[in-house]
Amino acid sequence: MEAQVLHLFQVLWGPWWDPIWRVFAPFWPLVWNLVKIVCIVAPVMLSLAYLTLAERKVIGYMQVRIGPNRVGYYGLLQPIADGVKLLFKEIILPTAANKFLFLLAPVLVLAPALAAWAVMPFDLDLILADVDAGLLYILAMTSIGVYGVIIAGWASNSKYAFLGSLRSAAQIVSYEIAMVFALVGVLMCANSLNLGKIVLAQHGGLLNWYWLPLFPLFVVYFISAVAETNRSPFDVAEGESEIVAGFHVEYSGMAFAVFFLAEYSNMILVSTLAAVMFLGGWLSPVTWLPDGFPWLFMKVAGLLFLMLWFRATFPRYRYDQIMRLGWKVFIPVTLVWIVLIGGLMQTPLAYLLHAGVPA
Amino acid sequence: MLIFSDYVFYTLAAILLFAGLRVITARNPVHAALYLVLAFFTGAGIWLLLEAEFLALALIMVYVGAVMVLFLFVVMMLDINLDKLREGFWDYAPLAGLVGALMAVEMTGIVGVKHFGLSHVNTPALHAADYSNTAELGRLLYTDYVLPFELAAVVLLVAIIAAIALALRRRKDNKYIDPAAQVRVKRADRIRMVSMPADVELPDMPEGEPT
């Protein structure tokens, strides 16, 4: 692919190609990677726009309403209308706010959420960067997202925003531990930090995926993921009834919208990660059907539907109960299961965990 | 000729130097902490160039993702009076300058070209694409260095427990929430059924009379 594009340029530019290439050559990897990044980010952006519509529709039907249905057929153009509206709204800067950090915060929330996609395997060869420590990279990237929340709360110079950001940051940092421990179980079984190898270690159909031997870790991971993304029922960061709207109370217009983009982008990211780690990624659930990207898409869509379902169903957790669940329930559960896996791997029963280097 | 990774290195190095400088010159402590975050992040980038991907990602996860978040918490919630903090800056400046200069001299003596130049330190061997830095590190940690590693782990555990023990203060006059009691609660504990006779309509009052 890369060579063909270069050849096309060479033919197009003719004799001018050589001098241009001499100057341009060091930057070619940058340009080529940028093209690939756009090929990943554009679909992610599109799907998160339609995730907002799906959320409104799903919750609407669950509450016996219709949801958005005026813009386009079945409200299909609603996300675009929302986007245009938010783009044209004024961004109000509070006078006492720290302007630079105030505007930097939304970027700091969105950028890591998008950067983490770099190592996500969509298919056997469909991956931007086949990094060996891919899982570590994703964890590192998602741990940066909390800065945007803290900075947004502090830079707004508002008590509600600051309280919201402290609550949110404490929650994200706490649940990250349980989430990482849940993933440690998977990488122990798969013997690899490479996401592609983790998927390949689960080959062989529905019953070979890690959700079955690591079921407690799967449950802990998914609930922690909901808490990590500040989604209901763990959305105390923006608990409207308690602290107005949390850390983004002072934001308006597109700056506000970027926080929402980041939230939905994170939702898709953690769902994809759950699908890759526990549900076999792009592998098909039965051996007689071919593997491929559509399977990953369906798994992620199913997990996202669960998140929307949670939001429509559960009342908001009390803050001290959130902390108790994270520290006193989830972390011990994951620790016990990790020790169990470690012990089981030394016995003849290790085959139950599909442990070992994938074929 | 400069190759792509050279451009990356010089860009990262420039950002790292700038961030490090701003950590000590920024007036606002929150800004200083954020510049420190930037410095960690850029340092991790340079480690990545050295093929130390595990260290780089661990640096981001541990220092950027956890330690600095708590640090920022503290700095943001402290009521720091900058003018008071800067009082006597010029009195201490000569001493601080002397210490700084000494440190600079020592550092150049050790890491200068004479001992650390290209002729003394070979470029790290390039590994094949399938070489796993993480797996190699894990193998070393759990074989050759297993005792020091476990010792460090135990020391850390002791430190954690000691910190909790020092900070934990049970007060008798505080109300504690007992989640087990909350879960066990039954309907009968909270609701008292009272049998009340239905309202009986009062006999008609004569009109106009104050009640």
Uncertain runs of chain B: none
- Alpha-carbon distance between the two ends of chain A: 27 Å
Helix-strand pattern of chain B: HHHHHHHHHH
Q: Any idea what the shape of chain A is?
A: globular
Q: The CATH topology of the domain at 1-79 in chain B is what?
A: Four Helix Bundle (Hemerythrin (Met), subunit A)
In this structure, how is the largest beta sheet of chain B organized? none
Give unreliable regions of chain A as ranges: none
Strands of chain A, total number = 0
Mean pLDDT of chain B: 84
Query: What share of residues are in beta strands of chain A?
Result: under 5%
The assigned structural class of chain B equals mainly alpha
Helical content class of chain B = 55-70%
**Alpha-beta classification of chain A:** mainly alpha
Dominant shape of chain B: elongated
Q: How would you explain this protein's 3D organization?
A:
The complex is a heterodimer of chains A (359) and B (211). Helix content of chain A is 65%, strand content 0%. Chain A is mainly α and 359 residues long. In chain A, helix 5 packs antiparallel against helix 6. The longest helix of chain A is centred in the first third of the chain and has 35 residues, at 28-62. The model of chain A has no long low-confidence stretch (mean pLDDT 85). Chain B is an all-alpha fold and 211 residues long. Among the domains of chain B are: 1-79, Four Helix Bundle (Hemerythrin (Met), subunit A), CATH 1.20.120.1200; 133-168. Chain B contains ten helices and no strands. In chain B, helix 2 (29-49) runs antiparallel to helix 3 (53-77). The longest helix of chain B is centred in the N-terminal third of the chain and has 25 residues, at 53-77. Chain B is elongated, with a radius of gyration of 32 Å. Chain A binds chain B through residues 26-27, 29-30, 101, 131-133, 136-137, 139-141, 143-144, 146-147, 150-151, 154, 162, 166, 169, 173, 176, 193, 320-321, 324, and chain B through 1-4, 7, 30, 34, 37, 41, 44, 53-54, 57-58, 60-61, 64-66, 69-70, 72-73, 76-77, 130-134, 177, 179.
